[in-house]
Design goal:
- The structure holds 2 protein chains of 2 kinds.
- Chain A is built from 2 helices and no strands.
- Chain A is mainly alpha-helical.
- Chain B has one domain.
- Chain B contains 12 helices and no strands.
- In chain B, helix 4 packs antiparallel against helix 5, helix 5 packs antiparallel against helix 6 and helix 8 runs parallel beside helix 10.
- The chains are: A mainly alpha, B mainly alpha.
- At the A-B interface, helix 1 and helix 2 of A face helix 1, helix 4, helix 6, helix 7 and helix 8 of B.
């Protein structure tokens, strides 16, 4: 009886450990890859757009409209 | 022994609930980020259509919402705020100089320019306010949005007043006369703004280098010396990124995206904060300027004026 309970408890602990590990890992991956497309391929254009958004154009101006 | 078993079962249930709660939290975070992205995409789609001359004289709130958010993304650091305030200063000065030229031409033609002069007086006071705005203040974004909104409003008032005075055909002729107007003062502003933007972009290059893991400073140096343009820098960095392995590239993409979304979230939040009591603040500013203009013996906008001959 003791052995049965012990092995059952052990089994439960393993299941819990696997579940916790899965959830934690899955969440870490989510944090890192939440912006990556489902197929896992980020295109050159997508990266360039992000890099582009990092910089300000030297000709950039604040527009308030024309006087005439 | 049964007690132990019972405790184990309780433990299992607790851990399972915790796991589920964590998983749910992850999903909620993703939904929040997705909603933010969607919201921002909607804003930029309209926000790109800046200054389409549909200024609403009664309420500027929707206008601020759409035009300023894309500009305030870089204002989450002092240098970015300095750039935007300086650009606003230049835009106001440019319109002020143009307005003065217009008035001179109209006066030579014998028109009554009292109303136009009143608007320019207020614009001069607005310019002083922009010049004294501090980029490192906590409310620098709000100041920028408020002052830019005033600048747009005054510009529209000036344009409408000229339209009432001259009519479309004469305005076209006047526009041709004033087409090429680049004063030394404006050139000076352009140079100052470009230097600040260069400094900002140099900081961004270093930030990107940090994310990519590059230690070579040659590109940043070349950009600093002016031998490489911003576009070339972007292309070079893009080339570096494309040579990275897929996993590292994806990781970098995520980090870049996260950074850009954080900036968008900042702009979104600051934009929304600026909406609060906007009309009240605008009214106060206008009253203060009218008072100042009266004390200085200016025309003061809204004082009696006659249109044209």
């Amino acid at each position: 009886m003791d052995k049965k309970i012990l092995s059952l408890s052990l089994l439960l602990i393993i299941v819990i450990a696997v579940t916790v590990a899965y959830v934690t890992t899955n969440q870490l991956v989510d944090d890192q890859q939440s912006y990556i497309p489902e197929n896992g391929d980020v295109t050159e254009e997508e990266i360039f757009n992000e890099i582009d958004g990092f910089f300000v154009s030297e000709d950039d101006e604040v527009e308030i409209g024309e006087m005439i | 022994m049964r007690k132990i078993l019972g405790m184990c079962m309780v433990l299992v249930l607790m851990v399972s609930f915790c796991s589920l709660a964590f998983a749910n939290l992850g999903v909620e975070n993703k939904v929040e980020v997705y909603e933010l992205k969607m919201k921002y995409n909607g804003l930029t789609a309209v926000g790109n259509d800046t200054d389409n001359d549909t200024d609403d004289p009664d309420g500027n709130e929707s206008e601020i919402d759409l035009t300023a958010e894309s500009e305030i993304e870089i204002m989450n650091n002092t240098l970015g705020a300095e750039i935007r305030l300086l650009q606003l200063e230049k835009a106001i000065l440019k319109n002020l100089l143009k307005g003065e030229r217009v008035i001179a031409v109209l006066q030579a033609m014998g028109y009554n320019t009292t109303e136009l002069e009143g608007i320019l007086d207020e614009m001069r006071l607005l310019l002083e306010e922009v010049q004294t705005a501090n980029a490192s203040d906590n409310d620098s974004v709000q100041q920028f949005i408020d002052l830019k909104s005033d600048a747009k409003k005054l510009t529209t008032e000036f344009r409408d007043a000229i339209r009432d005075l001259l009519g479309d055909i004469k305005i076209k002729e006047l526009k041709e006369q004033l087409k090429e107007m680049v004063g030394d003062e404006l050139q000076n502003y352009t140079k100052r703004i470009q230097n600040k933007i260069k400094q900002f972009n140099r900081n961004q290059i270093h930030k990107l280098y940090g994310l990519i893991g590059v230690t070579n400073e040659s590109l940043a140096e070349a950009y600093k010396n002016g031998t490489v343009s911003t576009e070339e820098v972007k292309a070079q960095i893009n080339k570096m990124v494309n040579m990275m392995i897929k996993e590292k590239r994806n990781q970098l993409f995520s980090e870049l995206k996260k950074e850009n979304i954080n900036n968008q979230a900042f702009a979104d939040e600051e934009g929304e904060n600026a909406m609060l009591n906007f009309n009240e603040r605008q009214q106060n500013r206008e009253n203060n300027r009218s008072e100042k203009a009266n004390n200085q013996g200016g025309n003061g906008k809204g004082k009696g004026h006659q249109n044209g001959q």
